[in-house]
Amino acid sequence: MEPTPEQSPHHAYPDHWEADVVLRDGGTARIRPITTDDAERLVSFYEQVSDESKYYRFFAPYPRLSDRDVHRFTHHDYVDRVGLAVTIGGEFIGTVRYDRIDDTGRPASAPADEAEVAFLVQDAHQGRGVASALLEHIAAVARERGIRRFAAEVLPANNKMIKVFRDGGYTQRRSFEDGSVHLTLDLEPTEKSLAVQRGREQRAEARSVQRLLAPGSVAVIGAGRTPGGVGRTVLRNLLAAGYTGRTYAVNRAFDEGLATLDGVPAHRSLGEVDEQVDLAVIAVPAHRVPEAVADCGEHGVQGLVVLSAGYAERGAEGRELQRELVRQARSYGMRIIGPNAFGIINTAGTVRLNASLAPESPARGRIGLFTQSGAIGIALLSGLHRRGAGLSSFISAGNRADVSGNDFLQYSFEDPDTDVALLYLESLGNPRKFTRLARRTAAVKPVVVVKGARHSGTNPPGHAVPVSRIPDTTVSALMRQAGVIRVDTVTEMVDAGLLLAGQPLPAGPRVAILGNSESLGLLTYDACLAEGLRPRPPIDLTTAASPQDFRDALAEALADGTCDAVIVTAIPWVGENGEAETGDGQVLAEALTKAVAGGSAKPVAVVHVEIGGLAEALAAASSTAAPRPRTVTPAAQPRAATTATTARATTAGTPAPQGAAPAAPAAPEAATTFEATTGPGATTGPEAATSHEAATSQEATPRPGRIPAYPAAERAVRALAEAVKYAQWRRQAAVPGKIPEFLDDTIDEAGAAALIEAQLATAPDPRGRPLSHDEARELLGHYGIDVRPTLPAPDPEAAVAAAARLGYPVALKTTAPHLRHRADLGGVRLDVADEEALRRAYGELTYLLGKPAELLPVVQAMAPRGVDTVVRASIDAAAGAILSFGLAGAPSELLGDTAHRLVPATDRDAAELIRSIRAAPVLFGWRGSAPVDTAALEELLLRLSRLVDDHPEVVSVALEPVVVAPQGLTVLGASVRLAPPPARSDVGPRRLPNY
Q1: What's CA 296's distance to the chain center, in Å?
Q2: Whole-angstrom distance between the N-terminal and C-terminal Cα of the chain?
Q3: Is the peptide bond prior to 657 cis by the omega test (within 30 degrees of 0)?
Q4: For labeling, which of 256, 684, 709, 906 is most exposed (least CB within 10 Å)?
């Protein structure tokens, strides 16, 4: 039985508990607190629950709710008694409530930290993950209100509810008492509960995109009666692509007698359609969109593609219209692509969907493409078509008010028809989540990103998302850390995509170059060096080389264990009559394809100049890559099976073994013939929570294996260089870094927390406060970071006394903000050996730079000589905590030679951080200097990372300079700023963003 609520004070309605969520089947629902206005909704909801579910809830027949029940279940104080409801179309489909109890199970208030919890889900919506979503949200609410445990009584026959508790990932205890199962859940998030939450999020969001891309029926709302116009164009493109589902034309302006339009049923509204409509493409003026959305919602449409413009790209008024559009669609359980979208494409043989403004559907291929710009989408589709590349899917999201690049990554991760994900992004709504999803996806397939609007500092029109203040170079570094291939232009994205989709990953940077032009070979050689590759001297086949010569040379290079990739350069060859032959690229393409089919698995790229038909012939070549097992997941609809004859041993996008000969076995990263996969690729750890639900079929899908062709050497080399770096990241990511355990023994987390709490309690500014030098030293000391003390020197006598206390030699330096860390301005005197030298240095400083009160001079003991470096950590509201490293001094600042990693950093991240700056050789014995103690530097980075990860109130730390000597290091200066932690959108229960 539920306890009778106490009359505790009522708190304000907690609107921050409201959330839109994606359910297991891809539909959306809204979770919100139950209010006193919900009495009728509650009664209606309860009437639709089966007698069995009511029995499971109340342990007895309970056909209807009494007035007292309704009052109790709708009146909450939002602290000790809380009720949440899941709604679709404004009606309840599930509820949960908790009541705080004491040790005896009676109603209580704080500080009691246990609550009784109970769920009820409408039978028609059971199995959609409603209870699981409610558990996440009610647990977060309870933690916010100081509740640490849930208690629940469940009948043994109520297996579904027991499974919800069991699968939540929380620490739990179970006992059998008085004929019921007594469950106690500890609400502190665990690694397992977080993995379960993210696994559910991934499956649900992937399924929501899959429902949009593979609908069983499509209605085009706004298809005009006369040819032309957006709606009629989409309808024509749907039919031209051979869409396999049912199609309907809808327009309220149709004559009542009009039965068909372009051969499909025509209706004045969706209400006239007797069958289920899965997807609606809306192409009506913005002021008519709400009516169309309501019509779709009432008819049970699952998703919308809104082509209509006139939203956030028009300013504040349009932005509010866009928010209302999203709210309206989600209230009916629908997701939106758009508004102002270009459309979507799915080339799968079982779907053949072209619900876009693209006049020609691309060929079927292995590349998934997401773009936030219709114009860029057109350019990319055209460029891929010209290069003979096919797509698996295409989404042009327009203002991307709902479905975003994060959703596309969720879908691409599981989609067995996608080997490479290409994304053109102009804004990142949730950079932390993007980085997490990109890292997981990149572990199994390449992710190539072009970031538009990099330097504007604002979001493009229509993109109502938080603006990150971190520099673009930092964004690029963080993407690289996540395994994302970041390129600058859409041309480079297509170049990289073609190579990655058609060729195996290289095992290393060694490149063989062969061709019939010495000059073109040398250009390619130089380009390889510029991109950090290790080219072998070019092999010149001379201009008299025949296609057979190319085949033989390529086969020899592929068999050579001293190279990891091959670039073929070709110019028109000279025929028997002495004239250049420019038009027969088919012959050369066949020769190269045969050589690749019989060689070992290494990437091959072709650079050609004016050889007609070569690129087309290479693109049209049949598959030469081995098939792999198809992985069918809940987010991936089965596709039509295809077959191909194959002779290659390594699948595209999979690293080949270093220096492999034709018969050599593949390395762990290079699956021979078939890949053993979970989803589209193997992954382990908490992020792989979906593995047990993926069933591998024996249906094989051929990998493309087509040789990409490029019109310029630098383009081919740049694409190959990106593949080399990505392959290296894949190999390293297979064995993730660790956070050393020794840190735990030397860190006082509780002491640091107490200090931070005390300092923020005294801060008059809600934005926080900087710590003094001594306060910063004390805080950093709790994490084993020793900052060398300084003593103030307001006059020469104080300076002499400080030096006597510290011991000579000392450093005298100013700490005025305009002179801090500016040794070039003369504000620092080093190796001051005695009192006389100190007085002289003090006089020089004050004579040249100003009065002591302006300079704020200090005295500090000298540190061992070494390399001056800078270590920083800061929190960006959008991107999260970032760890940075560089050498101290103006040159590094001017050149932007700073490396960045996301927090928490692992031992591998720390090692890579100090090695990724351009000036890194200075740390490792450059020009005969002594190498410094990089191990001590890595430990410092890990300690600082741990500090800002444990305490998000530490919003900024700068250690400058950090002098790294051959043995040990010294932190000479530190500045710390504390502030209330910014809200994080990547933690807590699942929820869709609201922009």
Answers
A1: 31
A2: 42
A3: no
A4: 256
Confidence grade of residue 891 (pLDDT, cut at 50, 70, 90): confident
**What is the β-pairing status of strands 954-964 and 867-876?**
antiparallel
Mean pLDDT for the stretch of residues 533-561: 94
- Rounded distance, CA 809 to CA 763, Å? 38
Q: Where are the beta strands (DSSP E) in 162-245?
A: 172-177, 180-186, 217-221
Is there a contact between 478 and 913 (Cβ–Cβ < 8 Å)? Answer: no
- Return the higher-pLDDT residue of 509 and 619: 509
Element (H, E) at 710: strand 709-710
- What is the SS3 assignment for 665? coil
Per-chain mean pLDDT for the chain:
85
For the four alpha carbons of 290, 296, 297 and 301, in that order, the dihedral sign comes to negative
Neighbour tally for 807: CB within 10 Å: 9
When computed from its CA atoms, the radius of gyration of the chain, rounded to whole angstroms, is 32
Mean pLDDT lowest for which of 386-395, 422-431, 622-631, 837-846?
622-631
Contact 551, 557 (CB under 8 A): no
Find, among 985, 969, 418, 479, the residue nearest to 704 by Cα: 418
Cis peptide bond N-terminal to 362, omega within 30: no
Average pLDDT over residues 96-111: 94
Looking at the DSSP bridge assignments, the partners of residue 249 are 220, 266
Beta bridge partners of 628: 701
Three-class SS of residue 387?
coil
Using CA atoms, how far apart are residues 647 and 595, in angstroms rounded to an integer? 11
pLDDT at 681 over 50: no
Higher pLDDT, 469 or 310: 310
Residue entry with tokens 């079982």: 350
Determine the Cα–Cα distance for residues 724 and 565; give it in Å rounded to an integer. Answer: 9
Give CA 615 to chain center in angstroms.
34
> Who contacts 529 (Cβ-Cβ below 8 Å, separation ≥6)?
535
User: Could you give the count of Cα atoms lying within 13 Å of 681 in the half-sphere of its Cβ?
Assistant: 26
Residue partners of 850: CB distance under 8 A and separation at least 6: none
Q: At what angle do helices 316-331 and 289-298 cross, to 10 degrees?
A: 10
- How far is it, in rounded angstroms, from Cα 114 to Cα 971? 46
Encode 218-249: b = buried (16+ Cβ within 10 Å), e = exposed: bbbbbbbeeeeebbbbbbbbbeebebebbbbb
Angstrom distance (rounded) from CA 221 to CA 253: 11
Q: What percent of the chain has pLDDT over 90?
A: 64
Question: Do the Cβ atoms of 958 and 974 come closer than 8 Å?
Answer: yes
Distances (CA, A) of 202 to 208, 411, 436: 10, 8, 11
Tokens (6 digits) for 246: 């049912």
As a whole-number percent, the residues of the chain with pLDDT over 70 amount to: 86
The answer to whether 907 and 942 are in contact (CB under 8 A) is: yes
Whole-angstrom distance, CA of residue 403 vs CA of residue 423? 13
Helical axes 907-915 vs 934-950, angle rounded to 10°: 120
How far CA 39 is from CA of 23, 68, 70, 73, 101, in Å, comes to 25, 11, 6, 8, 25
- Closest C-alpha among 942, 924, 941 to residue 933: 924
| Least confident span in 135-144, 427-436, 592-601 | 427-436
Percentages helix, strand, coil for the chain, rounded to the nearest 5? 35, 25, 40
Residue 669's pLDDT band, with cuts at 50, 70 and 90, is very low
Please enumerate, as own/partner, the contacts of 539-542 that have beta carbons within 8 Å and a separation of 24 or more: 539/512, 539/513, 539/514, 539/515, 540/515, 540/516, 541/514, 541/515, 541/516, 542/516
* Per-residue confidence (pLDDT) for residue 854, from 0 to 100: 86
Cα–Cα separations (whole angstroms), residue 812 to 83, 267, 805: 64, 85, 14
